[in-house]
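hey m, so remember when u said the tokens were messed up on ur end? i reran from scratch. heres the input so u can diff it against urs
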Amino acid sequence: MHIAVDGHTIGTQLAGNVTYAKNMIEALAAIDKKNRYTLYVTLLDTERLYRDRWPNVSVHRVEMGGRIARQMFSFRQVLNEHRPDIFFVQFNAPWRVPCRVVNAIHDLSFVHYPETFRWYEAARMKLTTRRSATAAAHVITPSESSRQDVVDTYKLPAEKVTAIPLAASDKFRSDIDPETIAEIRARYGLPGEFILGVGSVQPRKNIIRLIEAYASLLTRRELPPLVLAGRLAWLYNNSVSAAAKNRVAEHVRFLGFVPDEDLPPLYSAATVFVYPSFFEGFGLPPLEAMACGTPVITGDRTSLPEVVGDAGIMVDPYDVNAIANAIERLLADDALRSELSRRCIDRASKFSWQKTARQTLNVFEQVMSA
């Protein structure tokens, strides 16, 4: 098979989509020496990073403008030139391509929570993702929760949609060198204890309620600072201003985008990791924190129970008091933190990108044999 992979997000700091594309191409290259891959990228630095890295993976840089219609036209041109058997995309594919499309749709937050997006982005995603899902030969989702949602929302045959869990990459582990952790503390000016959140700053990540919970808890006990790592994405102003509004600005730090190589020691340095998102297709940051052995608090909705299992504390993400109580409970109980750290490491070890890649390759083979 000749499999074309859409990697246009790599290098763009687009959080989960970038993580998926990078880990997927690396895992596929590691397990599959038989098939041929073409990775489509848009940035020169990304082309240089992957060029000549694997014998059966070629890299092609696609010149694309900013408008989605122009991007899809550019892809259709190169697909007509290269004629792959399968085009593997995330969310959206060009019209009338000369190959079968496998579409990875991570979640339908733009359908169920359009108010957490810019209105025109939600409208575009609703239109293009429905069309791409319907036209695809097969759809992959990262969780059973998301699989059922895609089947129900787009009225797709159940056998056309497969749930394939993601994983934390191997760099997230519990034995990170203490000197590396100390360097990260010094680089970002972090104290010995802090509460960590990781993810792009946008409404669905529920940062406002997290800050409200932190502010509520601060009225009754001393707390380590709340440190939030992630680029300022869309509609972030209310999230950022929540710290001042709740009079805890001096206790809350927004680090902005943190490079991939800094994330493992950052997770490892944290006392507690909190991710109170109310809608996730999978939720990689909790799994990354778990792989580092950091106790986790998450929302109890959509895919997060599938990821965290009994290795973390799950709360109603709309209940500020529940979030505050969970943070207080973990900070106050050393034994509980130790027990959850042990469970986290064990739980995270059950996920791997090689497993994800093997199941994805199985889908490609099924599509070609259909």
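this time it looks ok to me. The chain has two domains: 2-167+352-369, 178-348. if urs says something different then somethings off w ur setup not the seq
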